[in-house]
Amino acid sequence: MANNHQDMSDLPSPNCATTIPSARVLSRGWLSRVGLACWLMLAAGSVSQAQLALPSVRASQLPSLGDGSEFPAASERRLGDRIALSIFRDPDYIDDPVLGDYVQGIWQPLMDAARARGELSDELEERFAWTLMLVRDRTVNAFALPGGYLGIHTGLIAAVSSADELAAVMGHELSHVTQRHISRLMTQQQRQMPWVIGAMILGALAASKSPEAANVAIVGGQALAAQGQLNFSRDMEREADRVGFGVMVDAGFDAGGVGSMFEKLQQASRLNDNGSFPYLRSHPLTTQRIAEARARIQTAPPHPFSAAPGHAQLHGMMSARARVLGDPGVDALRLMVTEAQRALSAAAPAGALTQVLATQLYGGAFAANRLREYAVAHALATRLKTLASAVPGAASAADLLLIELDFAAGKIAEAAAESRFSMASSRAQIVVQARVLLAAGRAAEVSDKLQIWVVSHPKDALAWQLLSEAWGRQNQLTRSVRAEAESRVAQLDYPAALDRLKAAQELMRSGRDGSGPNTHIEGSIIDTRTRQVAALIREQALEDKLDRKLQP
Fold first, then answer.
1. What pLDDT digit, counting tens, does each position of 235-244 carry?
2. How many domains would you assign to the chain?
3. Are 271 and 220 a contacting pair, CB within 8 Å?
4. 408 belongs to a structural domain
């Protein structure tokens, strides 16, 4: 039994998608009748405690009806929160307000359409996070996480030719969440366990006569489970195609975006995919999927969203921004600058701003800024601003770019003069101008504006960080530390938030809080938030303890 125990340590972690050991592990000598009996006891326990690899699924929690899932929405959200916390801590997670606003401008119409169509239930809308996360990665990929988190690689935004193609991908991923595909996949996997255990029993019986026959039975059982999983995944992909298409079209996007996106993926598939299209491998194309998509496109209604003036130019600018944020390297950045300078010299003085020209000028200016070639960046951005002045949507993006470039070059007075903070309404405008005005010594204006913003956007971690800095510059130390704590709460880091809140309480006790006449109000807020965050930490600890008890 000692040897068996040693070999059993090679089994996959209970946090993996399955607890079934590989055939390689099972065939390495410990597959005696006694060894298999021990493993079967573990496997039987994992089946009876079906959620051993999942967080805090209690027997008293009932499944949602009608979605084929036995995994509660609350538990799925907790699982998603844990994954999201890791992403927030990853250096490749980026919170770029300009690019984030553009993606949100596509995401919100999709959400509204899903809600209007009845795809997004009231329960899921309330329980799930519905949060977009941008990841610095040059590969073409997007992914749905448990609990309503959607990740988008900068490489995807840089690769698509229009907002319609991006909406096609986002609508598909949104439908994976609204149709509970993640939890249904977990349920399906759980139901296959008896077949796999049966194959293991047959393998044990055959082991005494033929080790080769035992391996065949074991691998056959795993293949059966894998085939069932594959079939279920294909069904889910087709369902996400159908539902996502309806959501996308009802949101006002061009159905042709689905077709052009499929063409990109199909071309990558024919080229055997060099690794830059992970989305293709996680969402494999089939003839049936392509045929169904083309059939739907034939009957799609008009598309008001992408037909709006300036929409193509704005996408080109954001695509270029995503490419630079993806950190393509010095050579690629210099190439973008060179292409922009050539395009600028070839463009007619009174010519129109096309999507190609907008992409080149914006990308060249942003790339030159990364290379610290500030004069070149300013010249390209100034020309872009002139051309974009008559193009709705693109004009605002060009204005913000010029402010960012002046700020990066240390031209604080010029950047502040270009800022119209009182008129700022979008998150990108508020964040970009707040940074400039803080550097210009106008912290009071920033705190006044951001206080209003965080009331309606309490999960905006970056806004809380800027508000913390603004209050700190006004010597309102307690408020500053409390805002820092709120930024940690927004990114699900509750222990760090509690640490900051306790520091704020200590500041108040020492008399160094600096809150003035609002001391008692601020103290009440901090005490309440301290209790709330401490309760969240205790709840997480109880869930973790339950998970450890459920693990064999």
1. 888 899 999 9
2. 2
3. no
4. no
